[in-house]
């Protein structure tokens, strides 16, 4: 039989469960002047004890502590049984460090959850981000012991652990200080998942106790005494009162005291009613410049190129920064006026050139830019020379500069015609007009007039007609040609 597909609700619950079992932490701030114990909690110190008791080289541990203190550990990802982070060492590209830890079995989780549900104080401590020692050191050990932490790293050092994996362990101790649920996630369960399961177990435990008390014989129930409201000090046993309907807040079999106030409550309608809420705080100002994504380590058999991912991440950060910076402040009515995107939709070829030009803003060709141009040429069916020339045109004038590279046009009478007179009046070489170009082929110089009324300088080897964008665009043809001749 073909299995029935999961319902939408079940699929959503599965996605939430998977998301709950993965937590990503941004790089922790450096502590350059810190000395003494690295962890502040007893469970964080116990985590480091497990590392230090099995380390084969104390010098590597000391170096790892320094790396962690100086902020060399980048973003940390925690999943069941695995902790991964990139650690910056002495080389340009960081290393990928990893710590593995055994997850608990289903039977071990049952025992651990039962022990938490049986003592409300343990759950209260966990919710307060504290790890009860009796829980961590019970029958199911949460904290790792000697040899439980298995370090791995992409660096050539075969130490166990190397300084990069040791630095990761030291930073994880700081995460544990702030939230012991990180330790429970390492052992196999996410925070939301654990709290939901504990809620179910507490409900079942309360129901069992209530059922056992309600159906117990009257003779087996301990006598409950209440002080009568009329006489001072007169008492009566709860079992001597006639049975009555159960009243909330009163034990079964116990009479309700005459004149007792009714049990308080809140109507659902009142709880769900709309209430005035304070206004949201103003948005934070945009940073002065976009951030740079962290460098990714090299990896074998990855389905993507780490350099390409860094390239796209940097572009996404620049686009987001431009959009935030272009957003206007709220108007008097509290709304925001419509803002046009600073990044209009572009054809694939133009967008590829934009990416190449903005990701590597320098004009020089390096091994990285050559490799990038080769990849773009192969992906777009162009030559590397086409890519390099187009990148230079984009750097010169953006979309307009790229359009002028291959598409001449006939400007109307006006600025274009007056430019030749202005050049002659400035005692500059006479240029021959054709379409929107002013050219001196013998000198290898050319000006192209754009739709934005700016002049774009080009140069070529004399007599080759191999024109390349050179220098920035200028609204004044005299300034554009003077800069071109001064090169």
Which terms summarize this structure?
16 helices, 487 residues, elongated, 5-stranded antiparallel sheet, alpha+beta
Q: Helicity, in percent?
A: 40-55%
Question: In this structure, how is the largest beta sheet organized?
Answer: 5 strands, antiparallel
Low-confidence stretches: 225-254
Number of helices: 16
Question: What this model shows, in words?
Answer:
The protein has 487 residues and is an alpha+beta fold. It contains 16 helices and twelve strands. The chain has helices spanning 8-20, 42-52, 58-69, 106-118, 120-127, 133-136, 163-178, 181-186, 191-214, 268-272, 306-326, 348-359, 367-380, 384-406, 415-425, 477-485, and strands at 23-25, 73-79, 82-87, 95-100, 150-153, 225-227, 235-237, 432-434, 437-440, 445-449, 455-459, 468-469. The strands form three sheets. The protein has a five-stranded antiparallel beta sheet with strand order 1-2-3-4-5. Strands 8-9-10-11-12 form a five-stranded antiparallel beta sheet. A hairpin with a 5-residue loop joins strand 10 (445-449) and strand 11. Helix 3 crosses helix 7, helix 4 packs across helix 9 (191-214) and helix 12 (348-359) crosses helix 14 (384-406). The radius of gyration is 36 Å and the shape is elongated.
């Amino acid at each position: 039989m073909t299995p029935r597909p999961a319902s939408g609700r079940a699929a959503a619950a599965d996605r939430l469960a998977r998301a709950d079992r993965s937590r990503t932490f941004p790089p922790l701030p450096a502590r350059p002047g810190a000395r003494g114990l690295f962890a502040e909690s007893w469970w964080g110190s116990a985590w480091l004890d497990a590392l230090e008791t099995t380390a084969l080289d104390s010098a590597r541990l000391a170096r790892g502590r320094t790396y962690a203190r100086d902020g060399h550990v980048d973003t940390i990802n925690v999943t069941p049984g695995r902790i991964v982070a990139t650690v910056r060492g002495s080389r340009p590209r960081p290393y990928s460090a990893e710590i593995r830890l055994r997850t608990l079995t289903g039977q071990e989780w049952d025992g651990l959850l039962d022990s938490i549900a049986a003592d409300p104080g343990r759950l209260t401590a966990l919710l307060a981000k504290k790890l009860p020692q009796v829980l961590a050191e019970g029958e199911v050990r949460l904290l790792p012991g000697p040899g439980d932490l298995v370090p791995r790293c992409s660096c050539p050092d075969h130490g166990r652990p190397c300084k990069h994996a040791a630095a990761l362990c030291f930073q994880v101790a700081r995460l544990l200080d702030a939230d012991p649920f990180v330790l429970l996630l390492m052992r196999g369960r996410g925070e939301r998942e654990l709290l939901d399961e504990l809620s179910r177990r507490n409900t079942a435990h309360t129901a069992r106790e209530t059922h056992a008390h309600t159906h117990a014989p009257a003779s087996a129930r301990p006598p409950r005494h209440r002080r009568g409201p009329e006489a001072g000090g007169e008492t009566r046993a709860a079992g001597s009162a006639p049975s009555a309907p159960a009243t909330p807040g009163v034990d079964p079999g116990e009479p309700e005291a005459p004149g007792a106030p009714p049990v308080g409550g809140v109507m659902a309608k009142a709880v769900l009613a709309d209430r005035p809420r304070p206004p949201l705080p103003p948005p934070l100002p945009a940073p002065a410049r976009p951030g740079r994504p962290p460098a990714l380590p090299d990896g074998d058999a990855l389905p993507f190129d780490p350099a390409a991912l860094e390239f796209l991440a940097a572009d996404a950060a620049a686009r987001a920064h431009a959009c935030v910076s272009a957003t206007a402040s709220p108007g008097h009515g509290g709304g925001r006026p419509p803002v046009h995107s600073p990044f209009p939709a572009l054809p694939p070829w133009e967008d590829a050139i934009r990416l190449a030009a903005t990701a590597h803003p320098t004009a020089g060709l390096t091994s990285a830019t050559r490799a990038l141009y080769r990849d773009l040429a192969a992906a777009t069916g162009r030559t590397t020379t086409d890519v390099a020339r187009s990148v230079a045109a984009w750097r010169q004038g953006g979309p307009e500069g790229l359009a002028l590279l291959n598409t001449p046009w006939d400007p109307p009478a006006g600025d274009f015609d007056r430019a030749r007179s202005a050049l002659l009046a400035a005692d500059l070489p006479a240029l021959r007009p054709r379409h929107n170009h002013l050219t001196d082929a013998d000198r290898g110089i050319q000006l192209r007039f754009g739709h934005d009324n700016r002049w774009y300088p080009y140069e070529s080897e004399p007599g080759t007609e191999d024109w390349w964008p050179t220098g920035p665009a200028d609204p004044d043809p005299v300034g554009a040609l003077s800069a071109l001749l001064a090169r």
